[in-house]
């Protein structure tokens, strides 16, 4: 752990108290300070549009970000609707900062709008070790627009959600997307592929995949749907 | 206690408190030592041919000269095959050295006349010889040829400098009587010595004649009451650079210094030092037992519970106890949980350490009551005031009146101004 040469304090705050000091094995401490897992959840819309995902460093089994690396990126490229990147980085203070950008190379941080970079604290062990909270969206970026597909274009954005189960947290980096129908256009009867895309228009956007079986076993299923099934909101 | 008759080389068992006058040997173990089994099972001609006989023979001769008919030597007076006897000996050793009429310190790698050799001698690096230097009232030093090097009093300046032990302990004097100065860098007390320092006649003399400013008593201190005047951290620091052959012995060799007893469990490894500290906490509320830290420049990670120090080497600073028993507080250790009353200061709003607290110890640094050590604490349960020491490198902070709003990290290597500038440039 990095230690500063000087730490400011307020002498007027000093109070005498009987405290309990506990000792821990190093293994316990490393577990306590372990990084919370961050799972990547990609909207079904992007799968349907045949987007390819290139992760650097590659995702661990279970779609987890490899947080042993301080920075990384997810590059999404589709033959029909262009390319966008999600960059992420961890600060020394265990904060996760993410950003989404379009038509940029991975790591091209300089031109990203500030609003597209949500930041969260990666607190693995909650201070209240009994806390159990449903999957809740902590922050959400603004959307970026991608090239259209026939009479619709794609809006993509990211959000970070956290779920806590008896004091232990895990995070989800959601990559959301939706097709937005352009005004004044007539949506023709879709051919097979187009019909698939039509099915992805807002009123038919399905629940996001990626809420795997483990999550579904929790008694907050309804709340998960409210908190993460928000692809339609923007 | 088993004594050796200095004339006949026969063993003499002593039960009870009344013992005959005896001399005791302090030395470091080497090859071909004459052990108990040799003397018990083989002829004198056979064991006296061993190399280790030299110091036994010289000890006996010197003891007789000094009016003692008996001697105690750890090589041959303990039957180490008997765990009961070994345990009794180790638990009693400080007392046995204390009760001896005189202790002969045989420094086998030093030759009289070499002014620098004492600083490099092996005897000053071993764990067991710490109590052997402190416990007896009189210690005389002999070189490899058994030539007299000096007494503990005449060599006190050298011994204090190279061992870090306060000269007052070696001189058996109240510290205030000697006009001590506390150097800011060396971290141990130095003393002005005069030519009067000589105890060849076995009489103690007033060192400088200066009276203690805080205490008018001129009576000599008993070793145990004198040691009670030093904090746990100070005594640990004396042992911090010493080594023992067996891992457990670094704890066992300190029992006498802290006036605690515990059963020996060879094989327990580092846990012995944890048990020692547990025993110390059973009789003392001295916060300085928490004033340990790792050497940040060496990037040492404890790997063990940071509640208590894993080794005396972690006591690196001159920390005095300021705990006031009149306050009626106590410190108790149960398992890996320590209940202690201390000053707490939250670090709210301080960036990375916004959740942490400073635990300010009832101690002073370098004898300055306006300089206090503090440990960094993380809350495990804030409302119940349950904390743990911050993990990673175990650190210690210094709070001082000169900078009353900032706690400074204590490090061994203080950066020079030009080094700080260089680092700032690198960071920029």
Description:
- The complex is a heterodimer of chains A (about 230) and B (about 425).
- Helices cover about 15% and strands about 40% of the residues of chain A.
- Chain A has one domain (about 35-230).
- The longest helix of chain A has 8 residues, at about 220-230.
- Chain A is mainly β.
- Chain B starts with a strand and ends with a helix.
- Residues about 175-220 and about 300-305 of chain B have low confidence and may be disordered.
- Helices cover about 25% and strands about 20% of the residues of chain B.
- Among the domains of chain B are: about 1-150, no CATH class; about 285-410, no CATH class.
- Chain B has about 425 residues and is α+β, with helices and mostly antiparallel strands.
- The interface between A and B is large, with 33 and 58 residues.
- Strand 1 of chain A pairs antiparallel with strand 16 of chain B, so a sheet runs across the interface.
Distance between the termini of chain A: 41 Å
Task: Please provide the count of β strands of chain B.
Answer: 16
Give me the strand/helix succession of chain B.
EEEHHHEHEHEEHHHHHHEEEEEEEEEH
Number of H- or I-type helical stretches of chain A: 5
Largest sheet of chain A: 5 strands, mixed
Structural class by sheet pairing and helices of chain B? alpha+beta
What count of helical segments of chain B does DSSP give?
A: 12
β content of chain A, as a range? 35-45%
What would you call the shape of chain A?
A: elongated
- Total individual domains of chain A: 1
Shape of chain B: elongated
What's the main sheet of chain B like?
7 strands, mixed
Helix/sheet category of chain A: mainly beta
What portion of residues of chain A is helical?
A: 10-25%
The H/E string of chain A reads EEHEHEEEEEEEEEHHH
How is this structure best summarized?
The complex is a heterodimer of chains A (234) and B (428). Chain A is mainly beta.
Q: What distinguishing features does this structure have?
A:
heterodimer, A: 234 residues, mainly beta, 5-stranded mixed β-sheet, 39% strand, disordered C terminus, B: 428 residues, alpha+beta, 12 helices
């Amino acid at each position: 752990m990095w230690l500063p040469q000087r730490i400011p304090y307020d002498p007027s705050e000093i109070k005498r108290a009987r405290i309990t000091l506990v000792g821990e094995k190093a293994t316990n401490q490393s577990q306590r300070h372990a990084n919370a897992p961050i799972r990547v959840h990609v909207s079904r819309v992007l799968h349907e549009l045949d987007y390819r995902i290139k992760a650097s460093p590659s995702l661990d089994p279970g779609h987890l970000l490899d947080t042993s690396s301080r920075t990384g990126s997810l590059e999404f490229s589709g033959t029909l609707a262009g390319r966008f990147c999600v960059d992420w980085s961890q600060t020394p203070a265990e904060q996760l900062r993410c950003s989404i950008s379009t038509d940029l190379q991975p790591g091209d941080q300089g031109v990203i709008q500030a609003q597209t970079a949500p930041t969260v604290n990666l607190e693995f062990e909650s201070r209240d070790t009994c806390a159990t909270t449903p999957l809740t969206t902590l922050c959400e970026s603004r959307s970026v627009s991608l090239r259209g597909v026939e009479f619709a274009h794609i809006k993509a954005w990211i959000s970070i959600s956290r779920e806590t189960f008896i004091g232990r947290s895990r995070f989800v980096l959601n990559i959301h997307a939706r097709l937005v129908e352009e005004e004044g256009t007539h949506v023709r009867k879709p051919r097979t592929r187009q019909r698939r895309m039509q099915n992805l228009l807002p009123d038919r956007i399905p629940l996001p995949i990626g809420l795997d079986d483990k999550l579904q076993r929790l008694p907050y299923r309804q709340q998960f749907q409210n908190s993460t099934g928000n692809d339609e909101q923007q | 206690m088993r004594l050796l008759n200095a004339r006949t080389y026969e063993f003499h068992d002593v039960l009870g408190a009344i013992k005959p006058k005896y001399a005791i040997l302090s030395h470091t173990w080497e090859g071909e030592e004459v052990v108990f089994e040799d003397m018990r099972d083989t002829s004198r001609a056979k064991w006296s041919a061993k190399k280790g006989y030299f110091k036994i023979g010289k000890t006996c001769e010197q003891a007789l000269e000094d009016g003692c008919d008996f001697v105690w030597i750890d090589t041959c007076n303990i039957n180490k095959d008997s765990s009961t006897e070994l345990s009794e000996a180790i638990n009693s050793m400080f007392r046995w050295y204390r009760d001896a009429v005189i202790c002969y310190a045989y420094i086998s790698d030093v030759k009289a006349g070499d002014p620098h050799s004492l600083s490099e001698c092996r005897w000053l690096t071993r764990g067991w010889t710490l109590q052997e230097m402190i416990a007896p009232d009189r210690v005389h030093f002999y070189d490899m040829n058994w030539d007299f090097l000096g007494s503990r009093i005449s060599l006190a300046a050298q011994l204090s400098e190279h061992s870090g032990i306060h000269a007052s302990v070696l001189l058996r004097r109240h510290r205030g009587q000697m006009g001590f100065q506390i150097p800011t860098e060396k971290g141990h007390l130095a003393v002005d010595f005069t030519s009067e320092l000589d105890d060849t006649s076995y009489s103690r003399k007033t060192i400088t004649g200066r009276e203690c400013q805080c205490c008018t008593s001129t009576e000599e201190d008993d070793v145990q009451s004198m040691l009670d005047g030093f904090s746990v951290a100070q005594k640990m620091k004396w042992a911090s650079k010493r080594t023992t052959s067996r891992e457990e012995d670094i704890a066992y060799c300190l029992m006498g210094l802290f006036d605690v007893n515990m059963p020996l469990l060879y094989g327990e490894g580092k846990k012995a030092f944890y048990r020692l500290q547990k025993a110390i906490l059973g009789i003392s509320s001295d916060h300085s037992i928490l004033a340990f830290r790792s050497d940040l420049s060496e990037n040492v990670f404890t790997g063990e519970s940071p509640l208590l120090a894993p080794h005396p080497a972690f006591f690196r600073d001159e920390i005095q106890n300021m705990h006031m028993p009149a306050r009626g507080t106590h410190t108790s250790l149960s398992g890996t949980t320590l209940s202690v009353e201390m000053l707490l200061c939250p670090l709210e709003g301080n960036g990375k350490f916004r959740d942490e607290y400073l635990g300010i110890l009832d101690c002073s640094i370098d004898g300055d009551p306006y300089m206090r050590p503090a440990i960094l604490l993380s809350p495990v349960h804030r409302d119940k005031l349950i904390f743990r020491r911050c993990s990673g490198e175990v650190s210690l902070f210094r709070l001082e009146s000169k900078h009353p709003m900032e706690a400074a990290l204590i490090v061994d290597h203080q950066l020079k101004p030009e080094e700080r500038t260089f680092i700032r440039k690198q960071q920029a």
